[in-house]
Inverse folding.
């Protein structure tokens, strides 16, 4: 009997402790920075978060990888402790997202942190590809211009790279890439495919007359098995490429950098994807990376100012900073100064045209 | 048999017929058993392949390449005169490490080469020195020989050397490889047991990354889950099984509990986001909310297994107790519950094991996150073991590949321990009639 009542007491006190802890937590102010956003920016924000907390007395920021769009939703929810302070984005904020933010009373400070290159790579055991953006568009688009030269679209008839461009090998088109939810996919469609799509004058002309049709032609990826959605995990794509020398894969530059023994980047428009070629913009498929900061939180959540100072310090985002070691391509010096100035003044982003 | 006896056959004919079919019946029996053995063999093969793959990839993560350096806490290099918190925050500990490296390789000159040289040592080394000096201020001005973690590129290279003659250079330059080889030859570079892996939280530098924060997070989350789901689950099961009248309402409840057990776990995550975080405003990324969500998920499992355990207690026990004049509550608490306990505990532990391996519901409530600080309570931001595995599997750094497998080994070890406990408890407490 004694035993039983004792265990009852333990149980009751455990439950009481839980409720007290819960109510305390709800009342206490958040003492760590909360960061959400793109999985491409995540490797960089996390490094800065870690360095920042080791160098200062602040708690380590909590970084969630939610994807660019998901991050924007969480970020723009409103102002207050339960919402994120900073979000990372592998593309610029959209007008609609900015309006949602402003509508919820969120003032946004934009910080461009650097560039990321997207590579098309294949196994080291095979010969490297030399592609143009037009080749990429023709090989991967859902509908392509009629091969007979008329200005109509036909469902993509190409089965081998040789069909696309006679100088390419006669291997079957097989490209492993991220699913549509991925920011990498968005950027790939915009930079590589649209870049090739524009080469057809009559499609380019559509951009003015019928923008949504233009976007559909240029961005829609074929779904007949030649483009394989291989999930968001870039390591998985690298391993699949190593096992299958006929396939090409699409992923971020930092994965190429780390796995140079297994895979090699394809030349695009004659440019090899290297740190230098992405930094000087000669490699065509690179995209800017951003973080967005909630202005209203800067003086409320401890450490945001110092975190931004660490981020925009040359030892972090400079040419020889630790972010470059992690595979991020830094901004040119003048640009960095401009962004850093803007961050210090915390100028809110009002419309997208002004940059 | 009936058709044989019914027809007018002689005994001889019956025997003949049976004998003629005997061979085929034996053959069928053999095939049937063969299928059973084949499926078990397939299962074992799958487990063996999984384990060899994970262990062969992950075992190297339990050692880490360390580098021996002779460091001098020179006040002039550090830029401080006394050891106090403020000056320690300012002090340039990286310079101490750099000096030590330059002393070891005095021939290196030029900015680029020096940068290369400095990258032999993990960038966490400076912080280690700071902690040492903080704990022992008397060291200022003295020198000592210490082991530091080497950078992850060095670690990857050294480990690949044991697999092949050339090794995998990767991001390591030829020149750096020369330095590494000379250090290896003198024993200043050595593979040692990786304690960091068990004492640190997550890090973006593989050599500083550890499993501790995730392990503690898992522990806190499971504690909350157990503290809530076991009492609630058992109480619900006892009421439904022993007290509730059998009518349409209890049938409805039963059907719903069974349905709930089959609901995809991400749905519970969405529920947790809507209720616990958005409505009750509990903190994001906290084991408290994780535990609450996992409670919702494991409750049906525990209720169902507890009811099965209660059902298996023979009615004679209840009747005997009633006959002695016990009230219904006394019957349940004094007689039925102790007998059903082993089954209930097994169910609870299986539910806990399920909760331990769950990531999907935690995604929505912010526990899929980069957490460096080891949590100290159920409201500190934290992550859990399977999430840590997921995050490492997604990292570009090569050295995370082995750490991913090592983390899987830790998770499997925890799971096996829990399941062994379940078996042991059942064996110990079980009573047969």
């Amino acid at each position: 009997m004694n035993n039983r009542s004792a265990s009852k007491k333990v149980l009751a006190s455990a439950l009481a402790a839980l409720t007290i802890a819960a109510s305390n937590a709800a009342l206490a102010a958040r003492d760590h920075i909360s960061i959400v956003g793109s999985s491409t920016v995540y490797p960089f924000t996390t490094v800065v978060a870690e360095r920042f907390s080791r160098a200062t007395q602040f708690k380590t920021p909590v970084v969630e990888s939610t994807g660019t769009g998901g991050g924007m939703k969480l970020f723009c929810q409103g102002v207050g402790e339960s919402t994120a302070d900073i979000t990372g984005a592998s593309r610029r904020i959209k007008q609609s997202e900015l309006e949602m933010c402003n509508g919820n009373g969120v003032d946004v400070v934009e910080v461009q942190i650097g560039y990321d290159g997207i590579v098309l790579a294949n196994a080291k055991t095979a010969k490297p590809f030399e592609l143009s953006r037009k080749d990429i568009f023709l090989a991967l688009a859902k509908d392509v211009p009629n091969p007979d030269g008329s200005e109509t679209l036909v469902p993509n008839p190409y089965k081998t790279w040789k069909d696309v461009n006679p100088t390419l090998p006669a291997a079957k088109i097989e490209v492993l890439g991220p699913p549509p939810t991925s920011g990498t996919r968005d950027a790939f469609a915009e930079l590589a495919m649209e870049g090739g799509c524009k080469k057809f004058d009559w499609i380019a002309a559509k951009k003015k007359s019928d923008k949504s049709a233009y976007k559909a032609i240029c961005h829609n990826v074929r779904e007949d098995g030649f483009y394989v959605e291989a999930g968001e995990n870039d390591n998985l794509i690298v391993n699949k490429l190593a096992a299958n020398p006929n396939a090409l894969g699409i992923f971020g530059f930092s994965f190429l950098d780390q796995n140079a023994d297994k895979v090699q980047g394809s030349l695009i428009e004659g440019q090899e994807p290297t740190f230098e070629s992405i930094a000087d913009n000669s490699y065509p498929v690179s995209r800017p990376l951003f973080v967005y900061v909630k202005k209203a939180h800067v003086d409320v959540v401890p450490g945001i100012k110092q975190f931004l100072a660490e981020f925009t310090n040359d030892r972090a985002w400079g040419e020889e900073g630790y972010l470059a070691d992690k595979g991020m391509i830094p901004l040119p010096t003048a640009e960095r100064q401009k962004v850093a100035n803007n961050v210090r003044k915390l100028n809110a982003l009002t419309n997208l045209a002004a940059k | 048999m009936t058709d044989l006896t019914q027809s007018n056959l002689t005994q001889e004919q019956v025997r003949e017929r049976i004998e003629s079919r005997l061979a085929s019946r034996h053959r069928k029996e053999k095939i049937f058993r063969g299928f059973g053995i084949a499926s078990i063999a397939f299962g074992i093969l799958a487990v063996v392949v999984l384990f060899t793959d994970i262990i062969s990839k992950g075992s190297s993560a339990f050692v880490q390449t360390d580098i021996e350096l002779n460091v001098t806490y020179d006040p002039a290099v550090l830029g401080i005169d006394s050891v106090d918190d403020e000056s320690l925050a300012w002090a340039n500990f990286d310079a101490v490490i750099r000096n030590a490296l330059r002393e070891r390789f005095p021939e290196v000159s030029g900015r680029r080469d020096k940068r290369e040289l400095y990258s032999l040592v993990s960038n966490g080394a400076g912080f280690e020195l700071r902690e040492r000096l903080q704990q022992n201020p008397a060291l200022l001005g003295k020198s000592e020989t210490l082991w530091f973690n080497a950078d992850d590129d060095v670690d990857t290279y050294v480990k690949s050397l044991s697999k092949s003659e050339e090794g995998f250079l990767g991001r390591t330059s030829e020149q750096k490889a020369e330095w590494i080889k000379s250090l290896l030859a003198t024993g200043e570079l050595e593979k040692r047991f990786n304690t960091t892996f068990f004492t640190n939280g997550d890090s973006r530098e593989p050599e500083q990354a550890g499993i501790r924060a995730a392990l503690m997070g898992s522990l806190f989350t499971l504690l909350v889950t157990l503290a809530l789901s076991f009492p609630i689950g058992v109480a619900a099961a006892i009421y439904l099984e022993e007290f509730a009248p059998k009518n349409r309402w209890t049938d409805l409840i039963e059907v719903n509990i069974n349905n709930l057990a089959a609901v995809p776990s991400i749905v519970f995550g969405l529920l947790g986001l809507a209720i616990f975080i958005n409505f009750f405003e509990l903190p994001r990324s906290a084991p408290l909310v994780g535990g609450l969500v996992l409670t919702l998920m494991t409750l049906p499992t525990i209720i169902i297994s507890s009811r099965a355990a209660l059902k298996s207690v023979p009615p004679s026990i209840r009747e005997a107790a009633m006959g002695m004049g016990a009230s219904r509550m006394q019957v349940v608490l004094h007689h039925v519950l102790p007998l059903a306990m082993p089954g209930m505990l097994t169910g609870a532990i299986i539910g806990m094991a399920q909760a331990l391996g769950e990531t999907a519901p935690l995604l929505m409530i912010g526990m899929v996150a980069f957490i460096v600080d080891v949590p100290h309570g159920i409201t500190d931001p934290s992550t859990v073991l399977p999430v840590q595995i997921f995050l490492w599997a997604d990292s570009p750094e090569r050295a995370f590949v082995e750490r991913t497998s090592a983390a899987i080994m830790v998770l499997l070890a925890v799971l096996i321990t829990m399941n062994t406990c379940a078996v042991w408890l059942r064996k110990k407490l079980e009573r047969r009639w």
Remarks:
- The radius of gyration of chain B is 32 Å.
